[in-house]
């Protein structure tokens, strides 16, 4: 539109999958850039990824077990280009729409995108249950904030998985065989069966 800058006109929409990005981009048309995060962009740090200054607190698990189980997240090496591309697109945008799945993982992906991209523009959460033009338009008209309760639920599950797996997997390696892992659900299910 005449008199408006590109930043005012363009809106960045981030979804999880490149296939969804193409389809939704076709529905939204000009004025929208639709890109994919390709799933999670950050995860709990592996011990080798924790900076020396934080090793004492986060070194073993990527979680500070002595300080409220605070997680330490890092952008994975395989996601650095994705994050860089998203930041570049965001710099040209006047609004950010997070259109990740409406479940714990999708909500966490949306939250991590905000943390990693540090947007200086309004952020809105889009949710939809089908990829049709009417559903996408309805989602744009009925945005909401990121659901912090769902993010907390996902973070709790992820931290428990890390703590449980990192403590029990070495026991399995010694007692049963190398390469096995112990998940919180698998371990309890195995115990119930045995």
UniProtKB/TrEMBL annotation:
PROSITE patterns: TOPO_IA_2, TOPRIM. Residues 10-132 form the Toprim domain. One of its GO terms (molecular function) is DNA topoisomerase type I (single strand cut, ATP-independent) activity. Residues 147-194 form the Topo IA-type catalytic domain. One of its GO terms (biological process) is DNA topological change. Keywords: Isomerase. The keyword Disulfide bond does not apply. Pfam families: Topoisom_bac, Toprim. The keyword Isomerase applies. SMART domains: TOP1Bc, TOPRIM. This is Omega-protein. It comes from Gardnerella pickettii JCP8017A.
